[in-house]
Amino acid sequence: MATMEDVARAADVSLSTVSHVLNGTRKVSPKTVAAVNAAMQQIGYVPNMLARALAGSSSGTIGVAISAFTNHYFSETVRAIEAACTRHGLMMLFSDTHDDPAQELKVVQNLHQRRVDGIVLAPSGDPHNRTLDYLTSNKIASVLVDRMLPQAFDQVGVENTEATAELVSHLIAAHGHRRIGFIAGAPGLSTTHERIDGYRLALQRAGIVFDPELLRSGDSNLERSGTATRELLALPPGQRPTAIVAGNNLMTIGTMHALRDAHIAVPQDVALAGFDDFDWADYFSPRLTVMAQPLEELGAMAVDLLIERIANPGRVQHVQRLSPTLRVRNSCGCP
Prior knowledge:
alpha/beta
């Protein structure tokens, strides 16, 4: 049975481009659309054929195990996955993992017992993740999202390192900042390490010596990011940052509140930028400059890959990195 990867090869485009054409998640040039359609016709690929086959011979349900209730980013990810399931005529069964390894394993076991056809998982940062072992030993069709791991799974995430480097580089090139603080996410998460790498890469490219005092852990949450911000502000004069980058949406909000509590004007006293966009980022004062992740694309790609994994269990694992978009607003100092 022909797959999206076969279409991508035949049309000489990326897998994500094929997904955009099929799902309408991004504008694609008419020439590329024509090439993809011609490739589908040539190799006999019929959109939704796999999903229809699954719906007719199995539960027609995909399980989703993500910690969504405490983070707007993940709740929007779940919404995007649900929209993709609806387009394919599939049902989605969601259960929150609360980012807890033990709860995550229970959730996946429960979804498996309910005979879902496959599972989309945002794995916890546990270095000895038993959930992945359970998925593998039970041969459960699975796709990992957001947090990329070395294990052999289909995975969809974003290019965290270069995207963070672009965000930091904007503060350097457009506004002349040299003392830039970075508030990192929870230890153990691949996204945390990749975004720290991007921060350091931007400094290196600009010839700025990395100062470990400017790197603080916000543990991916509001409270700890506020503490991290206060630690940066407590540095001696001349060592304090003139700009801060927060590693996710919750930490951006926590940082903003800590700056306001300290009567620090943004961006006049300290510029601010963050990773992840969210609905109300445009309504803050100042409006928040962020690196926005393509959640509609991520959800569509995750479901596409899972459907193909269910239909073709033996195919080679595919790891897809999507490109975030820099959304320049006012908190960085731009008008």
